[in-house]
Amino acid sequence: MSKMLTVMKREYLTRIKSKGFIIATVAMPLFILIMVFAPVVLSLIQSDDQQKIAVIDMTNVIYPELETNLGDTTASGERLYDLLQVEVSAGELKAEEERLRAEIQNGELNGLMVIPENVFQENNVEYYAKNVSNFNQNREFRNAISSIVQEARVRERGLSPELVSELTRRVNLETFRVGKDGGEQKDAGQTFILTFVLVMFLYISLIAYGATVMQAVTEEKSSRVVELVVSSIKPFHLMAGKILGIGSVGLTQFLLWAATAAGISAYAGAIVGMFGGDQSAGLAMPQIDASILVYFVVYFILGYILFATLYAAVGAIVNSQEEAQQLQFPVIMLLIIPLILMQFVIRNPNATSSVALSHFPFFSPILMFTRIVVETPSFGEILLSFAIMIVAIAAMIYLVGKIFRVGILMYGKRPTLPEVLKWLRY
């Protein structure tokens, strides 16, 4: 046991002092900060580039209203959209379009909007520009023209646009998540985002740290270092020490990331206020129960041990990193499949199939945790999931231990599946 702890300590200290660990630990919180606050900051930045747009209005009624509806300004106070009305007859339309498109190509214009005479019947307007991938701008143009056309149709029928707008106002549906204590919390999709983010953390971490175990075993085997190591320690203790040591590194990183996330959540409003946002409004972030964080850590630990044993078996079987990359695909599929099924579980957390799939030990870290975040099942179901995973871990350690014991000293041709099954009977 003491030798196993020595291996565990060595694996932990070697990796936690490495530059890669420090960079990854710092980079992930920075990545979270950028993903959370970059859209907020960018939304507060106004464009200084005035857009010169030619408008051919064959109806002769939409352009005046369009200037009013597209009244945004740049940071310097100029109109964002400098609209230039181009009056042409129907016979000159094609030639004028070609001339204006040439000006767009030469950089004299940013865009050309062509409003046909039958826009009230056909609902089609054409827009030409070098870049038509600015979806916010496209939506702004579409909404502005749609509003003008709709009001014109209403007036044509002798109705009041204000009255029609009042009568056709959309109803806002506010959603509230009911907690176990009967209290409610406003939820406009934050639970889905939270579930997706936490599950992706689990998915990436299980793959990353499991692959680290495989790589560590493969490197020692290919360099023949393992021959010296197993002369003084049992193969099982070597495997367990590597799994626990690398897992401790992952747990340390998780705790640091959790502390960073807690700080971001606590001071989100103040950080937004620093950039000129509404500090009182803050960010629409969901309240995370302490129990969810506990389950998150537990499922990481159980899931890591379960998958790390599989990765250790792969590392013991292969002779090089190239072979390891090929052979780890079945293990990765055990993580990809529940990730694909996650959408169904989010929509139907208590369906029979969701319950059954979430208790399958290799799917539990992702699917059962997804159910816990979306709609927490009974504590008995969660305990049953823990129990099944623990039994699966014990069985995998027993089986993989036999494979590991023989595989780490086998060199040459990669063993076939029948040969691996023979190792289990040794």
Main traits of this protein?
2 domains, D-Maltodextrin-Binding Protein, domain 2, two-stranded antiparallel ribbon, 18 helices, 66% helix, four-stranded mixed sheet, 426 residues, alpha/beta
Helices and strands in order, then pairings?
Blueprint: H1 2-16, H2 19-44, E1 51-57, H3 62-69, E2 81-85, H4 93-106, E3 111-115, H5 119-122, E4 126-128, H6 135-156, H7 161-167, E5 176-178, E6 184-186, H8 190-222, H9 225-229, H10 235-266, H11 268-274, H12 290-317, H13 321-327, H14 329-347, H15 352-358, H16 364-374, H17 379-407, H18 417-423
Parallel strand pairs: 1-2, 1-3
Antiparallel strand pairs: 3-4, 5-6
Shape: elongated
The structural domain count equals 2
Using the CA coordinates, give the radius of gyration: 31 Å
Question: What is the overall pLDDT average?
Answer: 79
**Secondary-structure element sequence?**
HHEHEHEHEHHEEHHHHHHHHHHH
Biggest sheet: strand arrangement: 2-1-3-4
The counted number of beta strands is 6
What does the largest sheet look like? 4 strands, mixed
> How far apart lie the N and C ends?
23 Å
Count, helices: 18
Question: Helices and strands: which structural class?
Answer: alpha/beta
Strand content: 5-15%
Which stretches are poorly predicted, pLDDT < 50 over at least 5 residues?
A: 275-283
Roughly what percent helix? 55-70%
